């Protein structure tokens, strides 16, 4: 009976193990699911909505094929739609039944109701993308994007978008009974082996020892000593029978090894039933209200890539003295100063170039949290300068005018402050402060004029108490420079015969032409960038006097004259960064953070 139960256990164990293995193999189904995307052959762009990418959980694999270069990029859905708003594109979305559908979206009409002609532009290298990919003929990229992100697929922006596009997901199929079946079958097989061993043991014990009777010996034959020895209990020597122990052990060991390997096959978590249920996420407090928060303009990785592009373009422009190339990455005061420098370098052989912009080393990224345009980002980058490995920090305000524009440097200066105020992390961003904001101790649009008054009048300025002037390196530098220039001018501005003054020099400051840019800090204050123009005026004191530019090649190169009876105006552009506290702050003084100052232009004073 034990043999019957052993065989039954073996058969049932085999069925259970085979069923468990089959669930993990032939009955599990495909491990991936692919959705082919059919697009129009006229549109140059295809936008795959985040809902399509997030149709199944897990990572996504994008495949696009076309003749030539295939391009793909991803970013926030709203940003990509804004970039495509003036052109026709294929919109790939998810229908109500979870099926993928494609429709051609025409350009959006402008404010006057006019529909623009579909624009064609190369999407490669745009600052708007969080990341981009390019490959010849076939592009395959593994992504893991949320439903708030979308993917743009194109070729060169002029030819039709790739027609062979698909998205593949890795399908997770759980087999909760595979593990119990395999392990249970292994245990049942061990029970069968045990029953089989018991059956063999009982069968051998029930037989007992059996011997045959010896035949009678003839009287005339000699006595066989071996038989006599056997009668006395002595066993004759001979080859012993082989014990079946080794074969039995091999028979027993084999099922155990098989069972162990099969049991490990079903040890993954998805091969067992989840009896505890899915854990419920616990809500945590956030810094901002997600319903009211807007997305930051850039990510840290995106900002690093943009800074490298800016530095590369400006470096090439400086090398070639190309103002048009510089204008692709500079605007406002930085661009105006570069143009003046290029003019001087073309006319003066030893004229130095302006400081290069860093290409890397970002330590602060403060993007504006804003879904529209224009957008502003504050950057602080470190780079080594000189042989002593000194670190030079550069502050920049970069702006993007619209979805199609590149980010440009609107303000740039050397960071002079020991410590920046606390700012929000890059993944949150900061709000832009309006120019006339009343929440700061001084509105941003009044800071340039107030500081210009402090430059001219020092402690006598009515705004002096509102600025932390004691540790202001820029103010000290301007004051010392003006004294030195005035002393040098006095030496040459006298008639040798009469000793009377033939000319005079004066200085004045005023708010520059550029609008201020301001981003909020965590302490209800703001980092504000402004532009101030310093004007140096030299005029003759009499009709017979003439101002000669004997030692001023810079003004001579910019004006194109060597002397003037009316005098000259020379303008210097100052880019200034301030920390402006909020109303009610314990430290209410405005503090200089960084600056740069370069010559902007010179002209002959009209009579």
Number of domain units = 3
Specify the helix fraction band.
Answer: 25-40%
**Given the helix and strand composition, which structural class is it?**
alpha+beta
Strand residues, percent? 25-35%
Mind telling me the C-alpha Rg? 43 Å
Sheet of most strands:
9 strands, antiparallel
Quaternary class:
single chain
List low-pLDDT spans: 226-260, 262-266, 281-291
What is the average per-residue confidence, as pLDDT, rounded to a whole number?
84
Tell me the span between the first and last alpha carbons: 129 Å
Strand count = 19
Determine the number of helices (DSSP H or I, runs of at least 4 residues): 12
Shape: elongated
InterPro entries: DUF8094 (IPR058407)
Keywords: Membrane, Signal, Transferase, Transmembrane, Transmembrane helix
Protein name: Glycosyl transferase
GO molecular function: transferase activity
In short:
The protein has 607 residues and is an alpha+beta fold.
